[in-house]
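Re: beginner question about structure tokens

> Can someone show what the tokenized structure looks like for a real chain? I only ever see the sequence side.

Sure, here's an example I had lying around. Input first:
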Amino acid sequence: MTVGLRVYNTLTRQKEPLVPLIPGQVGMYVCGVTPYDLSHIGHARSALVFDVVVRYLRYREYQVRFVKNYTDVDDKIIARANQLGIPIDELTERYIKAYQDDMAKLGVMPPTAAPRATEHIPEMVALIERLVAAGVAYAVDGDVYFEVRRFPPYGRLSGKNLEELLAGARVEVDERKHDPRDFALWKAAKPGEPSWPSPWGLGRPGWHIECSAMAMHYLGETVDLHGGGEDLVFPHHECEIAQSEAATGKPFARYWLHNGFVNLGSAKMSKSLGNVLSIQALLERHDPEALRLYLLQTHYRNPVEFAEEGVEGMRRPLERFRELADDLDRFRQMVDEAGRLVPTEPEPSPAGAFLAAVASHRERFEAAMDDDFNTPQAIGVLNPLATTLNEERERVRTGIRSGRDFVKGVEVFIKLGKVLGLSMEGVRLRLAQSFQPERRARIEDLVEERRLARERRDWAQADALRAELDALGVVVEDTPTGPKWKPKTRIGH
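And the corresponding structure tokens:
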């Protein structure tokens, strides 16, 4: 039995029961991409992790408001736009669109809101004004800085004290600052850079203030869950806490969730090392759901040691899952208006034994996900559940069982798979998305003609139709519930 959802809170360094600010509702903010280049597998992992978090919360019947931003004004963006000789908004629009395309292919649900930093400059200016008025920020020559020493809890998220932060922080030497650890809230305008009006003159926001302003605009002064990659713990999330709580006097986020890195061999992936794998390139080589399943096989807080052969290894379980979805489609077609499979058969096995086994698997799946979204254990439940379903399917095929319970069992299986973001679509439905309509219609017609030929015992005609289907790239299998067809090669190739 499950004992309720528990999440690992980076702030307290322990698992805690999830208790939202408003019962039954969860406000969740995740830091998004800076769109100056194609997104890479590290971005994919973070997106998949928090996609599953949202899916499971909704499975548990929470109302989730999920906000994920785009940082569309930044030093890297400005440098890349100048390098390419194009306007900044043209650059960011290009890579936001590329990111959205990548997410759609990976099956990542769109957030409730996807704000861009440039859409919320007034909110950022207002927040900075509150900090200046509170005496924790100061202006100098058109810049505005947050004074770290005026917020004593600074460092509690990363677990560092101020002296350690001085040694580890990447700070620019600036004698105008009260302290080298002070961070920029507003940057005075420079020639050739985008700028907006403010009480301190033309300029643009610092990186950290963007997320605080957008999170509070969409979710209020305290959010339930705040997430991102572990590289954001310091300085980004540390600074978000300081500026938000110094302004409001309230906790900024009740729970902080951070996903681990993706490593290539023994090296952390980074653009500076030239070992970045773009999502776009990976999806040209792999089934998107295989990539999703592979990345979710490691607990989100642990690093992933990426290997392409590991992604390929996900093909077999995916095919097994999709076979069950195909069978569900066929068995549902056999249901009469009274909701019973035709023909009905006696049920000789112990009453409810099969559905009890399905329920047991579901409880184990929920227990895994309740334990800080433990996707490796949840995936580990899907495989034996598939075995249980396949055993029941064989009993149906041999006439021992009617199939009513099989349909119910596969429906549970599909519901659990969708928590992990697997479409759980049968091969036929996936073909409907990948084959041209004319080709698809021709296949369906040939399969039906071949079925009728077999009923007439016209074996020569049936063999000729099978050969024609083979030429169309389709394999046909004859089963007790009718002909079944699928592509000869794996989906997406």
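Each token stands for a local structural state, so reading them left to right follows the chain. The first strand starts at residue 6 and ends at 9.
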